[in-house]
Write a structure and sequence with these properties.
The complex is a heterodimer.
Chain A: H1 2-22, E1 29-32, E2 37-43, H2 47-63, E3 67-73, H3 76-89, E4 96-100, H4 104-108, H5 116-122, H6 133-138, E5 140-141, E6 144-145, E7 148-149, E8 155-160, H7 161-167, H8 178-187, E9 190-191, E10 207-214, H9 217-227, H10 246-260, E11 280-286, H11 290-296, E12 302-306, E13 317-318, E14 322-326, H12 332-347, H13 349-356, H14 370-373, H15 377-387, E15 388-389, H16 397-412, H17 418-433
Parallel strand pairs in A: 2-3, 2-4, 10-11, 13-15
Antiparallel strand pairs in A: 1-3, 4-14, 5-6, 7-14, 8-11, 8-12, 9-10
Helix pairs in contact in A: 2-13, 9-10, 16-17
Chain B: H1 3-53, E1 56-59, E2 64-67, H2 71-78, H3 80-113, H4 118-126, H5 133-143, H6 149-156, H7 171-183, H8 185-197, H9 200-208, H10 213-224, H11 226-241, H12 245-250, H13 263-273, H14 277-303
Antiparallel strand pairs in B: 1-2
The chains are: A alpha/beta, B mainly alpha.
């Protein structure tokens, strides 16, 4: 117990020091290249993703001496607030920007970004068939594809192999359905005396190893909604609110039961760092966590399983993307250079995959050899190809998702029942969509 | 005829004086100009603009801008999140103001009573004020996390930890304590200055009359520092009802659920995340009115007694 406690204290101390330091580079403009044509590029990709992007841009600048890229990394927390203010102000904003595919509608439908992907497909700079049709559909408006998807990632289970071994579960045997998942979760929970839930003398108030934690409610619950055959809302323009449907309530109830009936899921979102000192068995989160584990874990300590099949209708995972979008008021000569840069980044996105674990949006660049280099790659891309679902299109996406985040949080911390939480959320979403 | 030259001389002299006065006035205005320009552009302008914004429908990304009268205020009345956020902000402001006044006053009294290390302790206690909310937020998020240092410390003594930032009942008190630790240095300095301004003779007289420590505090010290106390309460309340950074950084923007969702967060989100500038303007105006009413009430309650 004291070893684990000491480990936690040490980890907390390290993070106290590391977190403020890690934010140091954000906001600074890096001038890459010396050419006359200047591209202002704003990116929200930080950490290893940001470094990988910086490396690619530096190479592009070296190979294209006529171009200078003013590259600025902004934290996702304030990225869109700053971006919108700059776009509306009409100056000082970026020519090129990274956008989550989910927020593309609010910029595309208001005319602030241009259909650069469509233009590049027409010019033969990129092949439309080399992208997932579902992903392209999610960023298509009035028949035109707006931004170019750069990467394409999903979510799944990061699983601690030490604890799998202790529970007698094979590393290559992910759960088949919701029932088996519950059994795994039970086997992967231990109290201070080493008992599992259901054993005589199991002490639910003193759990030593939690079986499961969630990094982000949206990432966790959204695929479950699909698996129960529903979603938060239907896509624009005739957005219908679905989150108070019986199917949505059943999906959320599954997680509510994990918290309050089975006592195997803490209602709050814990960090997956606990996996590193064997204090947590499974962590349900997105592909972006790969790099953290890859850098910090012992060899083979963590493996990746697809998002489990929990619901009655279908299997599913999220299918999200960082896209490359171009502002509508870009100068023609800058647009030409910007399209060259986008093409370069897209063509080299396999290199980005290797460094970050984020699969390329280009299907031809998801080659089999990557599975040997990136331990999340195989299960992730296989499930995305078969069951991946991009989020609904809505100009009010940010508002709707903030409402949902608060609703999930309120339900999983016991402030509201599933019924109350989702009914309130539905009412607020309807108001937002008016 | 005789007086004409004199008149002319006198007239010249009068003109000359007026010109000097004018020149002085112009010089005065020129000296004032930088501040006036700053005041008009960065204070009066935005205040007037915010006032106007409250009565228009202004969707930032869509570019719509039209006068809609009181509709934003009507929307505000129907918005349950506005009321939740206002309630949370008032609760936080009251808790933090009271806590800050007590901690700052105790610290100031303690500092006044010690001789050795007075300056060192004053610097140490004031030091957190110079840190930014980002630093405070990140550090305290880690300290108060379920597996953070505070709970690890409690575990060492055999106590179970708490979910400070994820428990709906603990989150606002936790943010308040964080804020008190961060900000009590400033009111402490004001109190310290006020305490030093109290004539020592009054304390001596009280002691000769047989007053104990508690009586001296209640009957001498507190009445004499009432202007400082009023200033601290009003400014602290106005500052804390506008709390933003703490929930923004430490509780993912107001969680769990809406337990730490504050009015300035609601205004910020509506303005810069959802781009409803008009609606945000109406809420900002309403918050201004609430602050004004509370400040007025505090002046009435605390300022009505005789100043010594």
């Amino acid at each position: 117990m004291y070893t684990r406690l000491a480990g936690r204290v040490l980890l907390a101390l390290l993070l106290l020091v590391a977190l403020p330091l890690s934010a140091q580079d954000e906001g600074e403009v890096q001038e890459l290249g010396t050419g006359e044509i200047e591209i202002n590029f704003w990116s929200g990709l930080g950490g290893p993703d940001g470094q990988s992007m910086t490396d690619l841009i530096t190479r592009f600048a070296e190979e294209n001496p006529d171009v200078t890229i003013n590259y600025q990394i902004l934290g996702w927390g304030t990225f869109f607030d700053k971006l919108s203010a700059a776009i509306v102000a009409g100056s000082g904003g970026p020519d090129l920007m990274t956008l989550w595919h989910s927020v593309v509608p609010q910029y595309a439908l208001t005319g602030h970004i241009m259909p650069v992907a469509e233009q590049m497909f027409n010019l033969g700079m990129l092949d439309k068939d080399d992208f997932s049709p579902a992903l392209l559909d999610s960023v298509t408006f009035d028949g035109e594809v707006f931004p170019v998807p750069f990467d394409n990632y999903g979510s799944g289970l990061y699983v601690n192999t030490h604890l799998l071994e202790r529970a007698g579960i094979a590393v290559d045997d992910p759960p088949e359905d919701g029932e088996e998942f519950l059994e795994y979760v039970r086997l992967l929970t231990w109290d201070e005396n080493g008992n599992n839930p259901g054993d005589d003398g199991f002490d639910a108030d003193n759990i030593a190893v939690w079986p499961l934690s969630i990094g982000w409610n949206r990432v966790t619950v959204t695929p479950a909604l699909y698996q129960w055959g529903t979603d938060v809302i239907t896509p624009a323009p005739d957005a219908e609110v679905l989150i108070d449907s019986e199917a949505a309530k059943a999906a959320v109830q599954y997680f509510h039961d994990l918290v309050f009936q089975h006592h195997v899921l803490p209602g709050v979102n814990w960090s997956g760092e606990l996996m590193l000192n064997d204090g947590l068995s499974m962590y349900l989160d997105g592909a972006w966590v790969y790099n953290f584990y890859n850098t910090n874990m012992e060899d083979g300590q963590i493996v990746f399983w697809p998002y489990p099949r929990l619901g009655p209708e279908r299997g599913s995972t999220i299918m999200w993307s960082h896209t490359l979008a171009v502002t509508s008021n870009i100068e023609p000569d800058v647009l030409d250079a910007t399209m060259r840069l986008i093409q370069f980044l897209s063509d080299n996105s396999k290199e980005h995959s290797i460094k970050t674990g984020m699969p390329s949006a280009r299907l031809s660049l998801r080659t089999e050899d990557l599975a040997d280099q990136i331990w999340t790659f195989g299960p992730l891309t296989t499930q995305m190809a078969a069951e991946g679902v991009p989020e609904y299109q809505s100009e009010r996406f940010t508002e709707v998702e903030n409402i949902m985040a608060a609703a999930y949080s309120s339900i999983f911390t016991g402030q509201q029942s599933v019924e109350e939480g989702l009914d309130d959320a539905a009412q607020r979403i309807r108001r937002a969509l008016r | 005829m005789k007086s004409k030259p004199a008149t002319t001389d006198s007239g010249r002299s009068s003109d000359w004086t007026l010109t000097n006065k004018r020149r002085e006035a112009i010089a005065g205005y020129l000296f004032l100009a930088p501040y006036l320009v700053f005041f008009l552009v960065f204070l009066a302008g935005p205040v007037i603009s915010a006032f106007v914004t409250a009565f228009v429908e202004w969707e930032l990304l869509r570019g719509t801008y039209r006068f809609i009268g009181l509709e934003n205020f009507q929307l505000m009345m129907e918005d349950d999140l506005f009321w939740i956020a206002m309630r949370n902000s008032l609760y936080f402001a009251l808790m933090t103001t009271v806590g800050n006044v007590i901690v700052a006053l105790c610290a100031a009294l303690a500092l006044k009573s010690i001789r050795l290390g007075h300056t060192l302790f004053r610097v140490i206690m004031y030091a957190p004020v110079v840190l930014s909310i980002s630093v405070i937020g990140i550090v305290f998020s880690r300290l108060l996390a379920p597996f953070g240092l505070l709970n690890a410390g409690l575990e060492l003594f055999g106590h179970k930890g708490f979910n400070y930032l994820a428990d709906p009942n603990l989150v606002l008190p936790s943010l308040s304590l964080t804020t008190i630790w961060w900000g009590f240095g400033f009111p402490m300095l004001i109190f310290l200055a006020a305490l030093y301004a109290v004539p020592e003779a009054l304390y001596e007289a009280a002691r000769i009359d047989g007053a104990g420590r508690r009586q001296i505090l209640w009957r001498v010290t507190l009445p004499l520092i009432r202007p400082a106390l009023l200033f601290i309460i009003v400014t602290q309340f106005i500052a804390h009802i506008q709390v933003f950074g703490q929930p923004y950084i430490m509780t993912n923007g107001g969680g769990p659920g809406y337990s730490s969702y504050t009015i300035v967060l609601h205004i910020y989100r509506n303005a810069f995340s959802y781009y409803h500038m008009g609606y945000a303007g109406a809420m900002a105006l309403s918050l201004g009115v609430v602050m004004f009413v509370f400040a007025l009430a505090q002046f009435r309650l605390l300022g009505r007694y005789t100043e010594y």
